[in-house]
Amino acid sequence: MEPVHVIGGGLAGSEAAWQLARVGVAVVLHEMRPDRLTPAHKTGALAELVCSNSFRSDDAALNAVGLLHEEMRRAGSLVMAAGDANKVPAGTALAVDREGFADTVTSEIAGERLITVERGPIDTLPPGRWDSVIIATGPLTSAGLGAAIAGLAGSEALAFFDAIAPIVHADSIDMNVAWFQSRYDKAGPGGGGADYINCPLTREEYAAFVAELVSGAVTEFRDFERDTPYFEGCLPIEVMAARGPETLRHGPMKPVGLTNAHDPGTKPHAVVQLRQDNRLASLFNMVGFQTKLKYGEQVRILRMIPGLGNAEFARLGGIHRNTYLDSPRLLDRALRLKARPALRFAGQITGVEGYVESAAIGLLAGRFAAAERLGREALPPPPTTALGALLAHITGGHLGAGDSGGARSFQPMNINFGLMPPVAVPRGRRKERAEARKRAMTARALADLDAWLDGRREAAEWKFSRIGA
Fold it and tell me: Mean of the pLDDT values across residues 404-408?
């Protein structure tokens, strides 16, 4: 049996390779790092996390991404198993020790006899003799391969900017000013309800901080990048600040659900939260503080935040150009390129946003390729599931009815309940109905997912067994 080739050793590629190998399909996983690094990557480890260390909410009953976590766990996800094995405190979120996470994925892939890892870049389309290929090169696809894909597809890829948040050395944070607390004291999978470091700002401090953000010097774009739009779900803080003085207070700096431990009778006007970034709790990243400010400006302005006056940064924020396909036009429901069905795509390049979403599409691409290689029917997950909703979004969810097949403006998307079919719930107060609706949707999703998994003869073979054993 010929191997399936997976190009890209990020979260999506690693997950796809794992899914293939777990049912007996040989895989060649191609990763260009460390021979060639990207503007965002620093190591040669598989599944390196280059932005946040958070997989976001782990609440499977009331949050769509938490639901996606649970669906992937039930489907035998390597990424979720590695995340669970390396979790660090983060309230209701699942955050991970980024180095431990990448080391776990790398070790598991290396220990799987059916996966061969080949290092080195691939800058052109795969050779024709590769009859099954998954391209999971992520948002930083090399220029050569990206141009080849665009030429083959007959449609230009779309692009946007994504920004990286700074990471602070924990011992440089002034805990006489800052304090530990999660919003509303909620506990999460890796902590106990006091998992974030909170830095409070008064009205005057907040106003001064916003003014400096708006006027701070930013990274200059190259000519070909100037008209590239940002992804709305990951805007740089200075771009948010420029939209209005209160924007940040209703975004990453919202002060709700927190009480200043040093001054319980005073509510902060705004708050900056930092989340644990490694298992040793020596590094904390600034939540929602992705930025394109120049390095010197970052240090100057971020040290205006109370508690960070002497902050030492393990990594400053950065920015890189992301590329993704016009997937509703180019891909079929099994993630194959319509112009060349031997090629499948997975991960952020397909137009999903977020670590978990990228890995989820890798999981599906691996399952689809495995089913095809084994002569089985590649049934997609039901659209009532988070997995199925994501798949529907990128393979047709943006197609307008009666518009001759034309797509509306296609943008990267995180998983959310709006992508899933609605459910009817009894009348009641708005908040109660909203919670009831979410619980009904997640319960339906997990029941439908289990039925989908049970209906596949190979479902049991996909169950994860090694990590944590």
Answer: 40
User: Quick check: 380 pLDDT over 90?
Assistant: yes
Reduce the secondary structure of the chain to three states and give it as a string. Answer: CCCEEEECCCHHHHHHHHHHHCCCCCEEEEECCCCCCCCCCCCCCCCCCCCCCEEEECCCCCCHHHHHHHHHHHCCCHHHHHHHHCEECCCCEEEECHHHHHHHHHHHHHCCCCEEEEECCCCCCCCCCCCCEEECCHHHCCHHHHHHHHHHHCCCCEEEEEEECCEEEHHHCCCCCCEECCHHHCCCCCCCCCCEEEEEECHHHHHHHHHHHHHCCECCCCHHHCCCCECHHHCCHHHHHHCCCCCHHHCCCCCCCCCCCCCCCCCCCEEEEEEECCCCCCEEEECCCCCCECHHHHHHHHCCCCCCCCCCEEECCEEEEEEECCHHHHECCCCEECCEEEEEECHHHHCECCHHHHHHHHHHHHHHHHHHHCCCCCCCCCCCCHHHHHHHHHHHHCECCCCCCCECCCCCECCCHHHCCCCCCCCCCHHHHHHHHHHHHHHHHHHHHHHHHHCCCCHHHHCCCCCCC
Residue 44, pLDDT score: 86
pTM of structure: 0.81
Q: Which residues of 155-168 are buried (b: 16+ CB within 10 A; e: fewer)?
A: eebbbbbbbbbbbb
Q: Kindly report the length of the chain.
A: 469
Task: Name the least confident of 83-87, 134-138, 182-186, 218-222.
Answer: 218-222
pLDDT band at 400, cuts 50/70/90?
Answer: very low
CB 462 within 8 Å of CB 23: yes
Residue 16 near residue 366 (C-beta atoms within 8 A): yes
pLDDT in tens, 259-281: 999 999 889 999 999 999 987 89
Distances (CA, A) of 426 to 62, 423, 432, 437: 17, 10, 10, 9
CA-angle at 291, arms to 159 and 207, nearest 5°: 130
Amino acid at 223: D
Q: What is the pLDDT of residues 73-86, one digit of tens each?
A: 999 999 999 999 99
The two beta strands, 283-286 and 167-169, are: antiparallel
- Phi and psi for 188 in degrees, rounded to 5? -125, -170
Going from the N-terminus, what domains does the chain have, and what CATH number goes with each? 4-157+325-462 (3.50.50.60), 163-321 (2.40.30.260)
Token pair 């909703």 in the structure block, residue: 389
- What is the mean predicted confidence (pLDDT) over 103-117? 98
Q: Quote the CA–CA distance of 72 and 60 in Å, as a whole number.
A: 11
Q: What residues form DSSP beta bridges with 315?
A: 167
